[in-house]
Design a protein that fits this description.
Number of strands: 8
Bound molecules: NADP nicotinamide-adenine-dinucleotide phosphate
Strand order of the largest sheet: 3-2-1-4-5-6-7-8
Radius of gyration: 23 Å
Structural class: alpha/beta
Strand content: 5-15%
Amino acid sequence: MSSYSNHPAVTVLGLGPMGRSLAGAFLAAGVRTTIWNRTPGKDRELTALGAAGATSAEEAVSASELTVVCVVNQQAADAILRRAGVARALKGRTVVSLTADTPQRARDTARWAAEHGIGYLDGAIMTPAPSIGTPEAVFLHSGPRDLYERYRPVLELLGGTHTHLGEELGRAATFDLALLDVFWTAMAGYAHAVAIARAEGVTARELAPFAQGIAAILPPLFEEFAADADDGTYSGEINPVTSAASTMAHVVEVSESHGIDAGVMRSVEGLARRVIGLGHGGDGFIRAAEVLGRH
Ligand SMILES: NC(=O)c1ccc[n+]([C@@H]2O[C@H](COP(=O)([O-])OP(=O)(O)OC[C@H]3O[C@@H](n4cnc5c(N)ncnc54)[C@H](OP(=O)(O)O)[C@@H]3O)[C@@H](O)[C@H]2O)c1
């Protein structure tokens, strides 16, 4: 590439599907981009597009003011960043971790970075790799606001929306985990629904439009239940837990009549019964959040 943008040079560590997409978006925006991956050979397409392929992580981080690390988990990120040569080379530079992991691991790495004179932001990507560089991408960030503001223009070259959730380093990971919780439990419910529908002779394609209808009920419920959860109101006027538990029992019954593991719904029903047992049967299901939080 002959001319580069005014943005700082960026290094991307990790060339899995997401790391490759991130590096590709920086390159497409004209950013001088250096890339490195633990296993060699994953950088060819990107070097053909103008990325500089580094032969070591130390060389890679030395090439740029800003390093974005996106690997499988924080343990893998730490295995790269905390090597003595890499840590030395990062001193005075900034790392943005877009690696998914727990809030505590984000805080631990941030503490380590501070001890080594490295600027550190933790982020989470809430959309799949093909969304990067498009308006659909969703990025969450946490860490020092001045550092975020300094690198926001270059991070925004990755497309989509970027939200700074606060200075507390664990916040991006907390949002990430909570949202993954919503996503995967919903997906488990959907997989289970497909299994019992099929057992009753209904195809997944037949069910899909109606499943979409059910999913569409959720967004306004999230809003309404958020107010209940934060204010402790738990109104069950429309659908009290007692009524919900009875429909859950039907799902378990049909599932088990076909020999299909009803574990997910059994635990949902168990939770509803616990709420009822504690005397909250007239409340809305979100009362479960409070019951779950009791130790
Ligand atoms: N893919 C998506 O659509 C998506 C969406 C949202 C968030 N994310 C998040 O983005 C991150 C990266 O995901 P991904 O899809 O690119 O692929 P991934 O399979 O989660 O991670 C692959 C990357 O991790 C590296 N890695 C694994 N163990 C390592 C170790 N011990 N030391 C150094 N590097 C190691 C791999 O290097 P090698 O090639 O050497 O194995 C490769 O670069 C993850 O945290 C994921 O949760 C991904």
